[in-house]
Specification:
Layout (H helix, E strand, L loop, with lengths): L1 H5 L9 H8 L4 H17 L6 H7 L18 H7 L3 H4 L3 H18 L1
Helix pairs in contact: 3-7, 5-7
Keywords: Endonuclease, Hydrolase, Nuclease
GO molecular function: endonuclease activity
Organism: Elysia marginata
Amino acid sequence: MERKMLGLKLTDKISCKEIRNKTQVSDIAQYIAKQKWKWAGHVARLQDNRWTLRVTEWQPRNGKRSRGRQARRWRDDIVRTMGNTWTREAKDKEEWRRDAEGLILQWMDGA
């Protein structure tokens, strides 16, 4: 779509990064990852027993998941990037925000 906006063809051999710089359009995947990261920090800092916190920390009673490729849970991406202690690290709001940019890029590379 951005190539069409600039009137470029694939044969012009211009990289996607250069096109993104010219159009100043933000990457939707990065935006979504940033919003998810912010929401994860918000959920981790909840003090009361709201359903969002309970659902995030819930584990199935039998501990087994079905056969085949495992479905990715909402928190699996965050755990893969930050480890199992991400909820403790998210308690410090300023540090969570400071680390966000680099970790979001690392998170997207691993996805």
